[in-house]
Amino acid sequence: MKVLKFGGTSVGTAERIKNVAGLITAAGRNIVVLSAMSGTTNTLVEISQYLLKNNIPGAQETLNALRRKYQDVVDALFDNPEIAAECADDLNASFSFIARLMEGDFTQAEEKEVLAQGELMSTALMHAYMRQQGIHSVVLPALEYMRTAQGGEPDMKYIATRLRRMMDLAGDAQVWITQGYICRNAYGEIDNLRRGGSDYSASIIGAVLGLEEIQIWTDIDGMHTGDPRYVSDTRPVARLHFEEAAELAYFGAKILHPSCVLPAKLHNIPVRLLNTMQPDAPGTLIANFPPDGTIKAVAAKDNITAIKIKSGRMLLAYGFLHKVFETFDKYSTPIDMMATSEVGVTVTIDDTRHLAAITDELKSFGTVTVESDMVIICIVGDLEWTHPGDFQARAINALRGIPVRIISYGGSNYNISMLIRATDKIRALESLNRHLF
Ligand code: ASP
Ligand code: MG
User: Fold this and answer.
1) Are residues 315 and 423 located together in one domain of the fold?
2) Domain limit, last residue, from 170, 185, 219
3) What pLDDT is attached to residue 316?
4) What residue ranges line ligand 1, CB within 6 angstroms?
5) Which of the 8 DSSP states describes residue 291?
């Protein structure tokens, strides 16, 4: 058995839902994880923002537009009036639920409940459509098994036990359908695995059940050698090691949610990235492949801020880096890249919410300079340092003529990262694509 996850665009219209239903049926008896239809989660966020600001008409108007959209989908999806009516009832439960929250104060917990409706509506649509097609599908409600523990990490043991029991109790099914993204937290409240978290749901399910494969279906044929938005002649990468995929997902390849790789890697379950528009294309297979000494892809991470702390007193002293890191730790701000020298250190962050407070504190240890609008370019592959190859030389050569603020290699065997100005990004990506592939 496999787990197949379909993202928002894959179920974004009635046509796409029909198409995906065909793929699901052809794949056999698997677990299908669905995202909200594309645009829905954003609309639900918008509704919540109106409600948090107590702008009820704004919320109502946005909700009504969403309701119309789903009505159109129901009209296009079903020719069986009975099934159409039942499905419309299920969707109405979500809309009425949101409408009821418009009375009284709107809390952050209620916002999570609003956000959960998108995935619930997707599974309602797919389940009803399967029924119309004569397929016996069983919905596994994510809110009954997907749970995070204190600290927000998925509670793998609980999820495994609950999910197994639910599947046993349900008896037979031709297809299992479940919601991505949504869960309950340690207090039993409705919560989610953060934006884009449906990939993570699929990976958790694949891992806890020890399934054969985790398939992530999107609208691009796998992880590409470069970002097709900026570089023209990219091609899909056939095979990636888990570590390479993790670097790429984290450093900007939007196709896969960064958290998704970890459960798959720990349980050694291959992840396959596939394209709903070209279901026969090979896509990308992510697994525990042996080292092959090649560069796989280049990705870029935007909106990076570099912070330099220079201290004369750092010379031959210890404890300086500790103090610097402690400051970031205090403000729960992760550091992406760093470069050190005898007299200073530069680190990069992408979460700038606490930038002012952080720089203020860092000023007690040294002179602080901040550079914003930077980009991390990340070259990913099997870049084992003892390899007599020329990864570094080729990467640096490709960036000839482009100012490079930081170069980082050796933190892992899998990436060379360079920090450059955002304005040089496209030029850098194009040149790397030409030189490396
Ligand atoms: N629907 C959620 C989002 O838009 C989760 C997902 O699509 O993965 O973020
Ligand atoms: Mg996604």
Assistant:
1) yes
2) 219
3) 61
4) 7-8, 35-36, 41, 118, 180-181, 195-198
5) P
pLDDT of residue 342: 82
CATH of the domain at 102: 3.40.1160.10
- Mean of the pLDDT values across residues 84-113? 96
The ligand minimizing its distance to the Cα of 192 is 1
Q: Are residues 208 and 315 in the same domain?
A: no
196 CA to centre of ligand 1 in angstroms: 4
Tell me which long-range contacts 242-245 makes (C-beta under 8 A, separation of at least 24): 242/271, 242/286, 242/287, 242/288, 243/412, 243/413, 243/414, 244/286, 244/296, 244/297, 244/380, 244/381, 244/382, 244/414, 245/271, 245/284, 245/286
How many angstroms is it from 8 CA to the middle of ligand 1? 7
**Statement to judge: residues 300 and 189 lie in one domain:** no
Predicted pLDDT of residue 251 = 82
**pLDDT at site 314:** 62
Atom of ligand 1 nearest to the CA of 35: 7
Please tell me the total count of domains within the chain.
Answer: 2
385 within domain boundaries = yes
Measured from the alpha carbon of residue 182, the closest ligand is 1
Could you tell me the distance, in angstroms and rounded to a whole number, from the CA of residue 54 to the centre of ligand 1?
25
Percent of the chain past pLDDT 70, that is, above it, reads 98
CATH number of the domain encompassing residue 355: 3.30.2130.10
User: Ligand 2 centre and the CA of 425: distance in Å?
Assistant: 23
Report the predicted TM-score, pTM, of the whole model to 2 decimal places: 0.91
Residue nearest to atom 8 of ligand 1 (CA): 196
Nearest-10 crossing angle of helices 391-398, 425-436: 140
Asked, for residue 181, whether it belongs to a domain, the answer is yes
Q: Which residue range(s) make up the domain with 34?
A: 2-219
Q: What is the DSSP string of 100-114?
A: HTTSS---HHHHHHH
Does residue 334 share a domain with residue 210?
no
Task: State in Å: Cα 393 to ligand 2 middle.
Answer: 34
Among 168, 184, 219, the domain boundary falls at 219
Helices (H), 306-421: 320-330, 355-362, 391-398
Nearest atom of ligand 1 to the alpha carbon of 42: 4
Residue 151 has pLDDT above 70, yes or no: yes
Kindly state whether residue 290 falls inside one of the protein's structural domains: no
Of 47, 119, 181, the one to substitute when testing ligand 1's pocket (max ligand atoms within 8 A of C-beta) is 181
Average pLDDT, the chain: 95
For residue 221 the two structure tokens come to: 């044929």
CB 114 within 8 A of CB 47: yes
Average pLDDT over every residue of 249-272: 90
Task: Say yes or no to pLDDT of 252 above 90.
Answer: no
- Using the mean position of ligand 2's atoms as its centre, give its distance from the Cα of residue 10 in Å: 10
Number of the ligand 1 atom closest to the C-alpha atom of 201? 8
**Which two tokens mark 365?**
């240890």
